[in-house]
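Limitations

Structures in this collection are predictions, not experimental determinations, and the ligand pose is part of the prediction. Treat each record accordingly. The example that follows, with S-adenosyl-L-homocysteine as the small molecule, is included so readers can see exactly what is and is not provided: the inputs are given verbatim, and the output is the predicted complex.
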Amino acid sequence: MEKDKFIVKGKNLSELEEFFKGIGLEKFRAKQLYTGIYTNRYKNFGEFTNFSSDLRNRLEEKAVIPTLTAGRHLKSSDGTQKMTFEVEPGKEIEAVWIPSGDDGRKTICISSQVGCTLSCAFCATGLLEFKGNLKTWQIIDQVLEVERVVGEKATNVVFMGMGEPMHNYFSVLKAAHILHDPEALNIGSKRITISTAGVITGIDRFVENKEPFNFAISLNHPNPEIRKSIMGIDKKYPLVDLLKSARNFTKTLNRKITFEYIMIPQVNMGKENANKLVKIARSVSCKINLIPLNTDFNGWKRPTEEEVENFKSLLRPAGVPVMNRRSPGRDIHGACGMLSLRG
Ligand code: SAH
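Predicted complex:
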């Protein structure tokens, strides 16, 4: 039966070697399978012309190379494309292709879970029912499928789609390593960013394992009480502890961390907020990534250009690197926090 077969996609080299050994096949063939899947992007065993037909048949009997089932494909006027995939009937995820145009950067934003258990007050994904963790192959296949459909390779991958990556830690990190491996997808470790709403246990594990990837924390409010009211996760992992963990990250790994900060007028864009944010930024070696609220949501409005510029000017004197992330793909609900909105 298909479902009893060994899933070769999403496995690292040593797991494939183990599998080959288990069914009495030569180890070096596992390496060929590995590069066949991730470098040559073969989708079935028939494509492995470097294998004898005997070996191909043997593998077909025992194993399977699954592919995500494509759903909708939406194209934005700004070049962003959003693809949905059906993981199982009724379980849908989304991935977004974001070409940035000016600097040649092409980013794929991928999901780590079907829905999300967090319900951040500004995020549409949080309105969805949580339907489970993605498997490693389903995380990697978002990249393989988006690249295949778009016909180009991504320079960057961000785990900023649906879900909380730290709640699916093992599969997410395994996927990141395969995306990074020069023998697989060969994406530089600093071009892979994993983002968390603030799951401290995950951050600490990431540091302990000395993971090489970029790391971002969705800070979103510098005031502990207000953060708690808009990000439920702050009740479990309060801001003070989160910042301690972030400091430990930067000290131990000797790297900057990124703070993402959604700009919401009347909520976190005042002078007092800016001062608090600067204080935080001075205490942790970081970059700040400003994101304008993408939708009028929950009674909140998207900031005007003027409001954004004003907030930036409040931060500038602090000397903290501040980036203002564009939010492409709003017309197809492909921008941050809009995944799941259908319009
Ligand atoms: N759960 C992880 C991964 C998702 S990343 C995390 O929270 O980091 C999604 C990013 O989009 C987060 O930085 C989040 O703060 C931001 N976001 C959520 N809703 C948004 C909205 N309506 N407008 C702009 N950004 C939003």
